[in-house]
What we know:
Order of helices and strands: EEEHEEEEHEEEEHEEHHHH
Strand content: 25-35%
Helix content: 25-40%
Strand order of the largest sheet: 3-5-4-13-12
Radius of gyration: 20 Å
Number of helices: 7
Structural class: alpha+beta
Amino acid sequence: MTNHVVLNNVDHHDLRIIRKRSPELGDNVMCAQLLPQEFRDAQNDYPIFFHKDPDTGKFLPYAMFGLQENENLFLEGESWNAGYLPFLVERGPFSIGIQQRSNDERGLVISIDLDHPRVSRTEGDPLFLPHGGNTDYIERISYILKAIKEGVVESEVFVKDMLKYDLLEPFTLEVELNSGAKHRLEGFYTINEEKLVNLDGAALADLSGKFFLPAAYMVVASLSNIRKLIEKKNQRL
Length: 237
């Protein structure tokens, strides 16, 4: 269940957000959606894949954190041990809401899920200063939400171009651990490096003009992080 309300410094003056990381707070996830503007930072830590939504048929990029459901190999104690935390993870209980104004215009506002496990009145980082101003933390959240709003649109265009140039291909990952246990991941897609390298001049110009070409190469480069996930998994056996 969720309980989304528009955030304000009167009703929510004493709200705090628990920012430590743990399975109990919802961090034990195998993957999370990633935005193209994040690829450069994310590819240092995570494999980046695409997954086709069975309901909409749309492809979405994801950062992978584990090799099976409900597994995050970057969780260590109360920390997320990686150099980069994806926006859609960092945003926590917040989202962008729309508020109707008296002049019949709509304005974008920050919405918060009051039933989210990170929301507290006794523990964590405050959202507002004692006299009602914004803390640095809520300013960071505002930046992230705006980036997500813009990034979702950019992501749709990016995926359309990957499909336009036939660059996406199915990817099956078969892993055998030191214990002999085997994991098989299906239903993911990646970028075909050979086709990417052999794009014609017009396609290269098109993707470069949108700054999508570097993002595509970041996806290819991120595949080396599969070894990192396997190593992390073996260390926990």
